[in-house]
Design the sequence.
C-alpha cells in the first residue's frame, strides 16, 4: 500500500494515529510518500532535539516514510547523507525507514514504477537573498537583516533558509531523461514537489504571479514525452491537517477510466 501527502515542513501531526488511523494495519512494506518540503533536515547549525524527536517518531511508525525534496530543505546537510541503492534507484537513508528519494531515480515500489524528481523555486524571495559573506561584519549583516525583516520584505538567507540546490542542475535533468529512456519512457507514477509551466499558467492566471523555470520546462517535456498514468478525477480522503491519497484507490479509478 502506498499513501501520498504534501509538505509537512517539519511537522508530523498528520501522522498521529487519530489523524491517520489506517496505519494500524500497515507494515514496513507499506509506504507514505511526502511530496517535498520535508523540513526535518533544516537547522543550519546541525541536528537538534526537535528534529531528532520527529525523525524518531517517523522511524517508529509501522510503515516506511519516503520523501522527495522541495524548496524548503537544508541541502548543505541533506547532501552529506550517504547514497545507496534501494528498490532499483539511489536513495539517502535518514533513518532505516525514513528515506529520501533522489532526483531522476526510478523505483519499483509495491509493484509500481515511480520516478522521483523533487525541487522547486522559492516564491518568497522577491526582495532578494541575503548572504553574510557580502558584508564586512556580522553586525552589518544583522543590521540589514533586521531592517528587511521589520519592513516586511520577502527574502531568505543563503545557507540558512535558502539553497541554490532547490532547483535541479542540468546533470540531474539529463540523468532523469537517461533513466526514463532505460524504461522506454514509461513509468506508472511521477512524484514531484513542483509542476509544469502549463499547470503554472492555469494556477497563476497566465503566470502573472510566477515565472516558469527550467524545472517547470522539464515537467512540460515529461508531459509531452513520457507515458504515465493521468487521472484528474482521483478522489482523496480528507483527514485532519492534510489529504492522504491511497494508491489502491488511484489504481481503481484508473481501471475504471480505462475500462
Sequence:
Amino acid at each position: 500500500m502506498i499513501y501520498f501527502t504534501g509538505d509537512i515542513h517539519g511537522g508530523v501531526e498528520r501522522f498521529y494515529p487519530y489523524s491517520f488511523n489506517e496505519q494500524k494495519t500497515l507494515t514496513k512494506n507499506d509506504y507514505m510518500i511526502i511530496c517535498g518540503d520535508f523540513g526535518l533536515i533544516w537547522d543550519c547549525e546541525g541536528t537538534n532535539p526537535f528534529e531528532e524527536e520527529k525523525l524518531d517518531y517517523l522511524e517508529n511508525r509501522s510503515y516506511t516514510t519516503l520523501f522527495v525534496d522541495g524548496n524548503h530543505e537544508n541541502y548543505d546537510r541533506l547532501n552529506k547523507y550517504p547514497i545507496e541503492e534501494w528498490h532499483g534507484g539511489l536513495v539517502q537513508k535518514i533513518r532505516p525507514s525514513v528515506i529520501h528519494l533522489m532526483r531522476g531515480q526510478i523505483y519499483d515500489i509495491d509493484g509500481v514504477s515511480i520516478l522521483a524528481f523533487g525541487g522547486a523555486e522559492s516564491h518568497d524571495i522577491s526582495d532578494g537573498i541575503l548572504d553574510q559573506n557580502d558584508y564586512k561584519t556580522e553586525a552589518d549583516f544583522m543590521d540589514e537583516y533586521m531592517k528587511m525583516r521589520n519592513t516586511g520584505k520577502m527574502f531568505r538567507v543563503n545557507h540558512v533558509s535558502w539553497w541554490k540546490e532547490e532547483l535541479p542542475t542540468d546533470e540531474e535533468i539529463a540523468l532523469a531523461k537517461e533513466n526514463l529512456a532505460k524504461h522506454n519512457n514509461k513509468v506508472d507514477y511521477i512524484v514531484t514537489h513542483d509542476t509544469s509551466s502549463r499547470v503554472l499558467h492555469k494556477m497563476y492566471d497566465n503566470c502573472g504571479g510566477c515565472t516558469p523555470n527550467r524545472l517547470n520546462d522539464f515537467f512540460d517535456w515529461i508531459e509531452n514525452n513520457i507515458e504515465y498514468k493521468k487521472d484528474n478525477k482521483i478522489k482523496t480522503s480528507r483527514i485532519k491537517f492534510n489529504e492522504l491519497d491511497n494508491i489502491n484507490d488511484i489504481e481503481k479509478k484508473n481501471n475504471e477510466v480505462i475500462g
